[in-house]
Model the fold of this input.
Amino acid sequence: MALKQISSNKCFGGLQKVFEHDSVELNCKMKFAIYLPPKAETGKCPALYWLSGGCNIKGEDESWDFGTGAGFYVDATEHPWKTNYRMYSYVTEELPQLINANFPVDPQRMSIFGHSMGGHGALICALKNPGKYKSVSAFAPICNPVLCPWGKKAFSGYLGTDQSKWKAYDATHLVKSFPGSQLDILIDQGKDDQFLSDGQLLPDNFIAACAEKKTPVVFRLQEGYDHSYYFIATFITDHIRHHAKYLNA
Amino acid sequence: MALKQISSNKCFGGLQKVFEHDSVELNCKMKFAIYLPPKAETGKCPALYWLSGGCNIKGEDESWDFGTGAGFYVDATEHPWKTNYRMYSYVTEELPQLINANFPVDPQRMSIFGHSMGGHGALICALKNPGKYKSVSAFAPICNPVLCPWGKKAFSGYLGTDQSKWKAYDATHLVKSFPGSQLDILIDQGKDDQFLSDGQLLPDNFIAACAEKKTPVVFRLQEGYDHSYYFIATFITDHIRHHAKYLNA
Done:
């Protein structure tokens, strides 16, 4: 589990670093970025994990919603994906072990958030592991992948045609069997997001499931905002405050 | 002077837009980005111009410190550059006219700042036009291009071998003949910036010239910071506050 430092830049009094390592789960080299605040010089800090959406680089693959950068944070069971596409285990097990072993991090205090496909990833990681994450939030998450075109395509490829197996990676299904109500979920969704109107995100289904289970969720439909990083930049401070409330409790 | 909108994204309650137009000065299509805050819906706003550094994309040209993206904000006089490389006139004349004519901007309240080559650009635009800009600031600017390798190479190519003409685009020389002391200059410089130790930026020469002329300048040497966007991100709020003090006065 040797880490190779790729870059280090001072930023807001701390250090923004990028590392590369050989991933056991993914059978390939992986890179991650970590921000170490000034406090990390003298004591242990909580860890807040950020999961990106698809990289959306057309041309890198035949389609940008499947393949490189679009692993949907599942452990693939189907050939040829199952050897490398194990992002769920990577994010919930291998990466936290690596972070906890190499950085001044308190392993008891971790939270997770993400954008789009990464918002889906954050929700399923938290919902599949009660008590593991102190809090969860998402920007424009894919809330009910078993019912949307992106999810159907990805899950067919990675998990096979037996749709009963898909539910284990679907936030709307997972929240129905989530024990207790200790998870405080924050979701921001742009009202002018093209993927919302395309029926890819389906937050209403997730909210209805949360309401049925009485799981606390704050859902904010943000007038005029789209799916872009401008939307994320605008509201990310609110999300970090949401997590800090639980991570610093 | 028709503007074609390329993109528009809601951001922090306002709109981040990109436009394309046919530039008269540069004889080519140009793009610029503009952020319209919520206040722009109901009244005129001041304008703060940001000049980028070189784009540093190796491979786009033979060398990234000369050619595309590295016009050094001068009006070139030499062949083959003189037809298109007129960024000084573009930034100080054509672009402000375009902005003032098409957006809710108060033409009396403008300021300018930038990074690296763009910091040089901001300084010379302000120093060559007393009273035109309310304030100026820069991140890691090229302060004395006539004496540094980047500047010598660029000015030889764009302005010819007569070095006396170079001084008209050199902040350290310009400040010596700047009338009055009404310009409040803020400069941030990373202490671990490789281009500082390489002798490309030469801020000491500029500071000495300001001291001689009693021109107010706040120069902050920031411990541990490099030349990157992480450095800019860390201190840009201070720069915007610096400009707001004069633009909102």
Remarks:
- The two ends of chain B are 31 Å apart (CA to CA).
- The helical segments of chain B are 87-102, 117-128, 149-159, 171-176, 194-197, 203-213, 229-247.
- Residues 44 and 103 of chain B are 8 Å apart (CA to CA).
- The interface with chain A takes residues 9-13, 16, 190, 192, 224-226, 228, 230-231, 233-234 of chain B (CB under 8 Å).
